[in-house]
Amino acid sequence: MASSAPTQKWSGVGVGSEDRQKPGSGVAGQEGAALATPRLPRKHHSRGSHVTGAGRGHAAAAAALPAAAPGPGRVYGRRWLVLLLFSLLGFAQGLVWNTWGPIQNSARQAYGFSSWDIALLVLWGPIGFLPCFAFMWLLDKRGLRVTVLLTSFLMVLGTGLRCIPVSDLMLKRRLIHGGQLLNGLAGPTVMNAAPFLSTTWFSADERATATAIASMLSYLGGACAFLVGPLVVPAPNGTSPLLASETSRTHIKDLIEAVLYAEFGVVCLLFSATLVYFPPRPPLPPSVAAASQRLSYRRSFCRLLSNMRFLMIALAYAIPLGVFAGWSGVLDLILTPVHVSQCLPELSWFNWCLPGSCLLSLLLILCFRESYDRLYLDVVVSV
User: Fold this and answer.
1) What is the C-alpha to C-alpha distance for residues 188 and 139, in angstroms, rounded to an integer?
2) CA 125 to chain CA centroid, nearest Å
3) What is the torsional sign of CA 368, 369, 373, 376?
């Protein structure tokens, strides 16, 4: 009768068919192994009977045996394509977020931005992170595909708003601010969903590497904005828009719009690829952890808040991230009073500091993969 039972389809909750067939996989497997242990028949013997002693010896030996270790699940080659799409989406989100800081002098001349406007354009990223719990709830309830599609669609809308051709500079500035806010709303998914993706698609020995790659590409995109902007958009000759010629202003505005159109095209391409192929989960779970039953959102949230170790790890991650996000986007604005602004079109070392450190960390991740030595190397690179 047990063999004719239908195979349970994996939906992210419960145990997958591959894990259920293994007697030592999870709690159900341990219970099955315990039930499958043969029991010795009860016989009435006199005191000191050697049969009773042997039965007790077998029972003690069976109880002392450790439970069978859970067997490995099945992994699919398509997991790398899913990781690539998600990582490129994070890269594009970081690049769009940090568009204006590295070219703030040119943006002032082309669109009449003030210092407050430049700071607010960068601030829309952290502001868009405020509804992060809503996105995490959507990820938990609707799965990876729906959340990533919504995120990429917000990025398409945001980058598209910035490209609407209008002659009114006030309206153009408002459209740019709205586009930056929509792109900021994509931040919670591309920066927080990496562990969920790695648990869903990758085995235990690949999970840390997948999480690190998916998380690193968002920072790499923000860092590469220091290269893309100054490479394409030249710095104005004068620091005041009143001293700049109309020809120079028009030329700089055209180059900025070329950057905006290019970013819009990249985001549309990634959205199309995600729409065509981004499955919510593999047919079979890669590990027991991926197939295990999940707690409710409210209950898991309360348990995490009461876990002191988790809170320490969360603070260790959040504090450096907040410093980086608050400082890197307005770095060019901060250095303007000391005459280091939109700074080095000759690609000197200063432009390569942030992208170079991100690429070095990514190289260490790929070289050392799941080794614990990588943790110490990452700490050294970060310091």
Assistant:
1) 11
2) 15
3) positive
Nearest to 361 by CA among 340, 331, 382: 382
* pLDDT, tens digit (0-9, with 9 covering 90-100), for 167-223: 899 999 999 999 999 999 999 999 889 989 998 999 888 888 888 889 888 888 888
Cα dist. 291→13, 16, 54, 204 in Å? 6, 6, 40, 13
3-state secondary structure of 239: coil
Q: What is the pLDDT of residue 186?
A: 94
Confidence band for 376, pLDDT divided at 50, 70 and 90:
low
d(CA 362, CA 216): 7
Which two tokens mark 376?
């110490």
Cα 328–330–334 angle (5° rounding)? 110
Q: In degrees to the nearest 10, what's the CA dihedral of 242, 246, 252, 258?
A: 140
Q: How many CA atoms lie within 13 A of 162 on its CB side?
A: 31
308 contact partners, CB below 8 Å, separation of at least 6: none
Return the CATH class of domain 79-282+295-382. mainly alpha
Q: Pull the structure tokens for residue 79.
A: 């997991």
Report percent pLDDT > 90 for the chain: 27
Closest CA to 266 of 95, 99, 82, 148: 95
Lowest mean pLDDT among 24-28, 198-202, 300-304, 344-348: 24-28
CB 278 within 8 A of CB 152: no
Let me know: does 244 contact 236? Beta carbons within 8 Å. yes
373 contacts 366 by C-beta, under 8 angstroms: no
What residue spans define the domains of the chain? 79-282+295-382
Average pLDDT taken over every residue of the chain: 75
pTM for this predicted structure: 0.71
Q: How far apart are CA 117 and CA 94, in angstroms?
A: 19
Q: State the residue for tokens 């003030």.
A: 114
